[in-house]
From TrEMBL:
Stated name of the protein: MOSC domain-containing protein
MOSC domain sequence ranges: 24-173
Transmembrane segments: none
Chain segments annotated as coiled-coil in the UniProt record: none
Taxonomic source organism: Tardiphaga alba
InterPro entries noted in UniProt: MoCF_Sase_C, MOSC_domain, Pyrv_Knase-like_insert_dom_sf
Pfam families associated with the record: MOSC
Amino acid sequence: MTGERPQPRVVAVSFRRGHHFSKTPALSIRLLSGLGIEGDGHCGATVQHRYDRRRDPTRPNLRQVHLIPSELFDDLRSKGFAIAPGDLGENITTSGIDLATLPTGTRLHLGAHAVIALTGLREPCVLMDRFQQGLKAATLDRDADGRTIRKAGVMAIVIAGGEVAPGDAIQIETPAGHTQPLAPV
């Protein structure tokens, strides 16, 4: 064994028209620069999240793409939850990358052409418990200093469009200079 980490990859892709908690797995998705995922309920230049849109519909959409590491699903399954790609509303399920530890502005190159920039952490909400009781608490934790750790995925905007499919490689490009950790968006 060499001890090398596996190449980060796309495990699954999902989208769904309209606003629903879960998304439908697909063979591929098309990312649209500055908008999000073609045909998805959260696609748009301005905020599409229902709660945020009611507060200020003119704000930029920082939640165009939702990513969750497949390793979270493994953890949740070990705690008795039945979880599959798309169930938690994510568009891209990844493997081999600890998304929540990347700094704000990190660019992920997905497949041949698509590029997204991380904008923040997903804030677990009550809809998670409506999907499966106890799921919201299972996606929250505390570090040694008592700070909240959010494990429900990260959000991003589309920098360069393109097709993304399961099996695609993910290249990580962290921002130069001083970086900021991801915060809830």
